[in-house]
Amino acid sequence: MSDAAISIQGLGKTYAGGKRALDDVTFDVPRGRIFGLLGPNGAGKSTLINILAGLVNKTSGRASIWGFDIDEHPRNSKASIGIVNQEILFDPFFSPVETLEIQAGLYGVPKRERRSMELLRAVHLEDKAHAYARTLSGGMKRRLMVAKAMVHSPPVLVLDEPTAGVDIELRQQLWAYVRELNAQGVTVVLTTHYLEEAEELCDRIAIINHGKLIANEPTRELVNKAQEKVVAVTVDRDLAAPPENACFERILLKSPRTLEITYSKDRVNAGEVLAAVTRDGLGIVDVTTKEADLEDVFLSLTRAANG
After folding, report:
1. 75, 88 contact by CB (below 8 A)
2. Cross-referenced SMART domains, in alphabetical order (predicted)?
């Protein structure tokens, strides 16, 4: 039995016509974690998820879910994963409770072991249990999709852009449920375009660009990779133009007395930047810094990979 919730080795996918969606991708998703899978549109994330779901055939490599190889043990591997797709997919004429009962039946869950109402309570849809699914709002449909993915109690849950188009309150409810599931031992794989979400939720993040894996590190280590830092300096008099110095990467005059200075922390430190400002005869009244975040790292890594 592998220690990884998901293990991917040399995974490749080339579509008809020669488009290479995945190129020798290798990484493990540790058990019991919330793992971020990020990348620009068209990077290969959905192809990878669809291979794990059994919806797309890989061209090369191996993949296993909860220790079950997807080729050698397809039934066990599929039973070990629940997937919430970007697209909202269910019959609009069934109620939420009927939707969950049918899905549980497809997975062979005996009636006495089904948890349909429990799952609807967990995603705050108990009061809509018997309404037509087509009458649900977009946020409710998203939450129903999460419940649908959990009917067979899989140890791994994959959320593919689950909060796209969901308002802030519903997004927070969804993340509270995801954290609850994770606390119960469910491994969660998350793809999202909301990088602040990934930074807040994920223990570890992998980034795919043009089908290649370009990063796979603990979230904090990844954020610490950002080399550019920004400091806002308020000076003691109005300026017509920002001062120039070789130690600045960029400098902007945000207001007559406020400079926004970008510098590379592998070249200079904040003290040297401030000393350069005072050497121009300016008095410093106030200083604030902007910490690097995941968005800075993401853009830096994908730009470097595109270059």
Report:
1. no
2. AAA
